[in-house]
Write a structure and sequence with these properties.
By secondary structure, this protein is an alpha/beta fold. It has two domains: 152 residues, VC0802-like (2-Layer Sandwich); 167 residues, 3-Layer(aba) Sandwich (Rossmann fold). 33% of the residues lie in helices and 24% in strands. The strands form two sheets. Strands 2-3-1-4-8-7-5-6 form an eight-stranded mixed β-sheet. Helix 2 runs parallel beside helix 8 and helix 6 crosses helix 7. The structure holds S-adenosylmethionine. The site of S-adenosylmethionine has 21 residues, from helix 7.
């Protein structure tokens, strides 16, 4: 079998969860490193990873690594890759680059240089030039330059894997879908007991919970760049999708999203309407202090506001104090998980966290705090 090296990227703090997802997919040679997980497999494993991984942001297929201390080295290294095997006439191209601790310092410049190298090679070798389509390229290429070494990768998905196809509405601070799924997997919730997000905002956590509970592949509702690539195995891809449809099952326990803000709930309902697996979610408009939990045991998971604006007038500390009071009074028998970027405010909860998991919500360092409410 033709083995391919892959690298799936994820939010810092979720590498072990992503490695676990890959192992559950039956992939071997899984190796987590900061920011992602290396794995090896055949072409179908790459497709399967895009279809099934809940916590990966991208699935990359590295095609070359070389020393890159100058623009010329970058150009030569990229030009030496066999692009005529990856691009056929009519296909569009786009490059994105990240640059860190290197002589080259501008990612836009690196991406432009890399693009020139690809276009020049195809023009000289084959006599045609690919068009550039930054929005939806058939072949998205990623350049990762770190300590003067460049890794050139094909990006199997194109659009980030967090784009499941259900979210259009944007409320103030939605969680990234891949992070929301990571929190759920970290909590160990398996869909057999009730799940509540009492501050659900645009509904990301309940919707991702519904995807897990119904064993729905998160990528079923979207397309991927690799479908446009030469040698795409349409039959193998269809078989994977058929299998994913067969594996779906009804949710076994209630999934509830609540929020006090009617606009947030409207966005959540709207998002859920675009995801068939989310049809069974119960949405409720309620303040957390008045929300009536279903009979436990169950899992409560939410990310309360931790914004700067609230901090000024002490409102944030009051909010966290009241969350603590409500958990103590109403949620006996439940396990509660809170993601917060404000550890000072979180002290006001007044309960002892039995786990504290460091995670990054974008650039913001957070903690996922676990409370067992006996
Ligand atoms: C950071 S947002 C949650 C974002 C959400 N996880 C998402 O992905 O869209 C916090 C939410 O808590 C809600 N909220 C704040 N205080 C609340 C309270 N006391 N009861 C219920 N909801 C509250 C806000 O309306 C807001 O929608």
């Amino acid at each position: 079998m033709n083995r391919i090296d892959y690298f799936a990227t994820t939010a810092r703090g979720l590498e072990e969860i992503l490695a676990g997802e890959l192992q559950a997919l039956g992939v071997v040679e899984v190796r987590p490193v900061p920011g992602g997980v290396h794995f090896r497999g055949d072409r179908t494993d790459g497709y399967r990873a895009c279809l099934w991984l809940r916590t990966a942001n991208r699935v990359l297929q590295p095609v070359a690594t070389f020393a890159c201390a100058s623009a010329d080295q970058l150009y030569e290294g990229v030009r030496n890759c066999p692009w005529e095997g990856f691009l056929t006439p009519g296909m569009t191209l786009a490059l994105d680059a990240s640059v860190r601790d290197s002589a080259l310092t501008h990612s836009r410049f690196a991406a432009l240089k890399g693009k020139d190298a690809i276009v020049d090679r195809l023009r000289d070798l084959r006599g045609w030039r690919p068009d550039i389509d930054p929005a939806a390229p058939d072949l998205p290429v990623n350049l990762h330059i770190h300590k003067n070494r460049c890794t050139v990768s094909l990006d199997l998905a194109g659009d980030g894997l967090h784009r499941r196809g259900y979210r259009l509405e944007r409320t103030v601070a939605p969680l990234r879908e891949t992070l929301a799924a990571g929190l759920l997997l970290l909590s160990g919730w398996d869909g057999t007991t009730p799940f509540v997000d009492p501050m659900c905002g645009s509904g990301t956590l309940p919707i991702e919970a519904a995807l897990i509970a119904t064993r729905t592949a998160p990528g079923l509702g979207r397309g991927f760049a690799f479908q446009k690539w030469p040698g795409f195995d349409a039959g193998g891809w269809q078989a994977l999708r058929d299998e994913a449809h067969r594996l779906r099952r009804p949710a076994a326990a209630p999934i509830i999203g609540a929020d006090r803000d009617p606009r947030a709930l409207a966005a959540a309902r709207d998002n859920a309407a675009r995801q068939p697996a989310a049809g069974g979610i119960r949405w409720e408009r309620s303040d957390f202090a008045r929300f009536e939990p279903p009979a436990g045991p169950g899992t409560l998971l939410c990310n309360p506001p931790y914004g700067e604006r609230l901090k000024d007038d002490g409102a944030l500390e009051l909010l966290y104090r009241s969350i603590g009071d409500t958990l103590k009074q109403r949620w006996t028998g439940w396990t509660a998980w809170l993601l917060t970027g404000n550890l000072e405010a979180a002290k006001r909860i007044g309960l002892k966290a039995t786990r504290r998991v460091p995670l990054w919500n974008g650039p913001l360092e957070c903690r996922l705090l676990k409370y067992e409410l006996y």
